[in-house]
Amino acid sequence: MNRRHLASLAAAIAVCASTALIADVKTQERTRVQFEGGLGKIVNFFGGKAAREGIVSSVAVKGDRMISINDTTGELIDLKEEKVYQLDMKKKTYTVVTFAEMRKQMEDAMAKAKKDAEQARAEQPKPESKPSEPQKEYEIDFSVKETGRTKQIAGYDTKESLATIVVREKGKKLEEAGGMVMDTSLWMAPEIAALKELQDFRIRYAQQVYGPMIAEAAPNMAQAIAMYPQMQEAMAKFQAEGKQMTGTPLSTEMKFQVQAPPQSAEGQTQQSEAKKDEPPPTSVGGLLGGIGRRMARKKEDRPAENPDAAPGRATIMTSTSETLQVATSATDADVAIPAGFKQK
Questions:
Q1: Helix (H/G/I), strand (E/B), else coil: 153
Q2: CA 121: distance to chain centroid?
Q3: The sheet that has 55-62: what strands, in order across it?
Q4: pLDDT of the residue at 282
Q5: Spatial separation of the C-alpha atoms in residues 145 and 147, rounded to whole Å
Q6: Exposed (0-12), middle (13-18) or buried (19+): which is 178, by Cβ within 10 Å?
Q7: DSSP state of 232
Q8: Which residues have C-beta within 8 Å of that of residue 306, sequence separation ≥ 6?
């Protein structure tokens, strides 16, 4: 089950009904994911031009069909036939999977995940009767603001909104104990009905494929959220603050950063050899501490980052998505298997 199918299932859980009339639309979009440091160099080297400049995809919707293609792969969804055609643009071939087969894959995956979880719980050793260290608690801050910046994208006037999510130790500032920051820059245009059709189609697709499993997944999601009060608070803030953002996002840049605790920048370099065999983190605190230590060890080896960035903060990943073109018409040929393609 690939990420695109899982994203469709998540969308259907969030929006359990859609009665919108599907119209014709064609769009072109560029997406890019950029990693910093050594990992970024490896990705750029092996990913070639696509990793450096991004991937341009063309999407078209007409009636019960949607196609999405780029230079190497493509996918054609037919709601009436209940089939997905997976395209290899280089070899000019395609394979077909039915909605029923996709449901079976998801059911098998859910059953395996449940079995693995039960087995892991059964094999987990009983904790020794030692006084445990107090677990750190974390808080999530969320805010949205308009920056006042404007620009034209795909022929539309847009305004920038900046959404920020901060994960920090409870009762402490980010700069005091470290944490994580995710800044999302959204360039919003007035609502574009044609782009909403893409979302509506994906929701219909998810409902048609995974409908019987949506009712099962939704309560599980609610239970998971209830286990983490910080997540509930963040979602409440998102709903309240998100009302400020109206329209259609035509460009989205998500930047994931880590703020190192002050103490991680002192005395950690000398301990780097001793830390090579440290166990993998088993908690949010362990994850933040490990990232902070690695940042401190490599601080002198890294080139200087943005001089305006907060001290001790490093960018781990940046994801960018931009709409290049929007058209409100599509033909049958636009949502057909390209000429010359053969089934494998």
A1: strand
A2: 29
A3: 138-153, 156-169, 179-189, 248-259, 313-327, 25-35, 55-62, 65-69, 73-78, 83-88, 93-98, 342-343
A4: 47
A5: 6
A6: buried
A7: H
A8: none
Handedness of CA 308, 293, 260, 36 (dihedral sign): positive
In the block, which residue shows the tokens 């780029």?
70
> Cβ–Cβ contacts within 10 Å for residue 318, how many?
17
Residue 272 has pLDDT above 50, yes or no: no
Residue found by looking up tokens 């908690």 in the block: 283
Number of residues in the chain: 344
Contact of 235 with 149, CB cutoff 8 Å: no
User: Torsions phi, psi of 8, nearest 5?
Assistant: -65, -40
As a whole number, mean pLDDT of residues 98-107 equals 91
> Is residue 288's pLDDT more than 80?
no
pLDDT at residue 89 above 60? yes
State the pTM of this model: 0.65
Six-digit token pair at 30?
């560029």
* pLDDT tens, residue by residue, 323-340: 999 998 899 999 999 999
